[in-house]
Here is the input.
Amino acid sequence: MSIEKALVPPIKIQGIKTKLVPWIASSIKWNGDGTWFEPFLGSGVVGFNIAPKNAVFSDNNPYIIDFYKSLQEGVFNSQDVHQFLTLEGAKLEKTPPSKESYYYEVRDRFNKTHSPLDFLFLQRSNFNGMIRFGPNGYNVPFGRKPNRFRPALITKIVHQIDWVKYLMDTHHWTFVCDDWSNVLSNAQQDDFTYLDPPYIGRSTDYFSSWTEKNAIALADYANGDLCGGYALSMWYQNKYRKNEHLKKWDGEMLTDEHFYFLGGKESNRNSMTESLVIKDGYVASNSDAAV
Ligand SMILES: C[S@@+](CC[C@H](N)C(=O)[O-])C[C@H]1O[C@@H](n2cnc3c(N)ncnc32)[C@H](O)[C@@H]1O
Here is the structure.
């Protein structure tokens, strides 16, 4: 499947794969007849751009799933988002003594009510679009970029909502909040699973911790019991080291090197290589691969 440039979903998250979507899409061989499983959904940028006919999108973060489920079920629509962000954005701009105080008011409110619109507000005004939870709930600090909810940006978010809602209305997609291990036991031979687990050992990331033990359990499952094809996204190497965990995976490995700049300086140019470990999915001999 060829995707030139990925569209961006409304929810942001660290480790978002927007830039890798064209590479992932062109590397996967699967005829698209079965179900796409994506048990580490995050923002949804990969699955939403691939847009399979049938999909089970899941994550163990209940707020990500509640956000997308609520959009799918019509609990809110893009007009509600427009109105909400306009109102709340104006409060953020005007609340003395600093904007931060209103951000933290919404954060406290979210930790009590778990409203999906508050979650969107936080994800679009926090530090770097991070998702992080501690013992007292969502704990990402305010992001100091100016004018987070100026009209042009709200319109952009509304278009992102419209895009995802259109896909939800025209495809058979299910959103599930669960651990990957409970969801993947449902995969069949003609299904395909895209895996993008967290980095090993960062206990405060996302919604729960992801330990070496979790990572090995996932690799063992994918190498053994998982039905159908899969693709795993994982970092391969950076300036300092190689990812030894990749040795635990049986599939074919593709790599892609990209560069990033620390502090925007040419002299601080660093490279990072990403990998995609692939086991092909079912491709009928006389049909073109849909994906
Ligand atoms: C690297 S992020 C996925 C990013 C996503 N591919 C994107 O491009 O936006 C990993 C996701 O896995 C979820 N996660 C962590 N542990 C999990 C588990 N045990 N079962 C299911 N999901 C889990 C996190 O909540 C997070 O959303």
User: Anything to note?
Assistant: DSSP finds nine helices and nine strands in the chain.
